[in-house]
Amino acid sequence: MAKQRVKFTFPPHLVQEPIIWRLGKNFNVVTNIRRADVTEDRGWVILELEGDLEEIEKGVRWVEEQGVRVDPVPGDILEG
Amino acid sequence: MSFANTLRCRECGRHYPLEPMYVCEFCFGPLEVMYDYEGLRKHLSRRRIETGPLTIWRYRDLLPVDGEPVDIGAGFTPLLPAPRLGKALGLKRLYIKNDCVNPTWSFKDRVVSVAATKAREFSFRTLACASTGNLANSVAAHAARAGLEALVFIPADLEQGKIVGSAIYGPTLVAVQGSYDDVNRLCSELAERYPWAFVNINIRPYYAEGSKTLGYEVCEQLGWRIPDHCIVPVASGSLFTKIYKGMKELAWLGLVEWRRPRMSAAQALGCSPVVEAWERRSYDIRPQRPNTIAKSLAIGNPADGYYALRVINETGGYGVAVTDEEIIEGIKLLAETEGIFSETAGGVVVASLKRLATQGLISREETVVAFITGAGLKTQEAVVEALAAPVLIEPTIASFEEAMAQRQKALSTSRR
Ligand SMILES: Cc1ncc(COP(=O)(O)O)c(C=O)c1O
Ligand SMILES: [Zn+2]
What we know:
Chain A is an alpha+beta fold. Helix content of chain A is 26%, strand content 42%. Chain A has a single domain, classed as ACT domain (Alpha-Beta Plaits). In chain A, a hairpin with a 2-residue loop joins strand 2 (29-39) and strand 3. By secondary structure, chain B is of the alpha/beta class. Chain B folds into 3 domains: 4-71 and 108-207, Rossmann fold, CATH 3.40.50.1100; 79-105 and 211-382, Rossmann fold, CATH 3.40.50; 392-416. Chain B has 15 helices and 13 strands. A 6-stranded mixed β-sheet of chain B has the order 4-5-13-10-11-12, sandwiched between helices. Chain B has a 4-stranded parallel β-sheet with strand order 8-7-6-9, sandwiched between helices. In chain B, helix 11 crosses helix 12. The termini of chain B are far apart. The A-B interface holds A 4-5, 9, 34-35, 37, 39, 42, 46, 48, 69, 71-80 and B 11, 22-23, 26-30, 108, 129-135, 155, 180-181, 183-185, 187-189, 200-201, 204, 235-236, 284, 286-287, 295-305, 345. Bound molecules: pyridoxal-5'-phosphate and zinc ion. Residues 106, 108, 134, 233-240, 296-297, 343, 345, 373-374 of chain B line the site of pyridoxal-5'-phosphate.
């Protein structure tokens, strides 16, 4: 079992979509929301994903394909 | 013993011991070092600082370290009055904080000196980072000085010049084939898996404190005074928020009189998520895909962007985003008026300053400090095409004088 902390940032047209629910349902991944800021047309969610590493990776790829930006929790790590 | 006493979550306020950790276990918020300010107030004086070494370590009491510093001479860089640049912009009291002259030619030596000291204190044997240049150079150099292994992750398509500035210190350089996002994801996973001191991941709370020294120095160099206005380049937003924190701390400790400096954030238009949110009057940062020559500032999803926005708004500062053309002009203007060759981040600052001055958002009488955070030899590609070629002559006086006459003619027609 692996755990991964990630930040999802939703563009306006996806805020109303139940993406996190579908991530948990379609993949063998437990989603645990820790902090979020969602407004009508925009939002981000910080959550922990738990499951097999491969399954987490597949799930995250699917989330990205939906148009959600996925980042590691400390923000960008690559620095100038 | 240092005066640091806990790590505190910036979101939920929970406290943690001073260990190599960086996010709150409860809410995953970022952690920040807290100090015993009562103890510090009794202990610290201007005199104690003034008699310290001419490096960031004169402010050691205000940094979260216990061990012997890993010191290659970072900090206490010149604060220069800039009358010629000031005249060009219509500002009477303009200063340049010239952080180009650090040991690896950028302000990153301040943060990495603290991070390397902390890594050694925590008994790590490897100092690591993911970087496109300045941070990589500094990590490789400080690891060498500390006798630590250095592990530096860079994007595979990085320019040769940037690689040399790290490779010379003998680190293990890992070139990652993939996008920036791929490098980021990989490094955040590696940081969980291996016992390394990743300066900007698990050591980040300590690392970030090093930037406060820029705020301390400017106040001390102004004769223990807080300036009216600071123009600071912003990538993750850490430097920006820590300069302000440093100035506030000096006031809490009674070392300067409190007056609120306007804190203005400078970004490149091609990567300006903080300025874009500020212009919308929002705290909601929309991540961007960077596209600018200012590579050292190209962070599309800034970790401290929200906190940087709070500082801009709290101090009545401005957000400014400038084009790549303005950046090149800014680099040239600084070099031609003050003799300082900065990298693209400095061009961003000078161009932003120019914009604010032109729009009348800075008054003539304000004491303004422009933070120039990295040296120009590192980013020569950015300006090489914008510079005049040398005048080519035969080794004769006639040839020289003819060339000068032609040059004079060309100059006078171009001025007309
Ligand atoms: C030269 C230079 N100036 C400024 C910055 C901005 O630093 P920060 O990420 O703390 O906003 C960086 C680094 O990323 C840099 O390399
Ligand atoms: Zn917390």
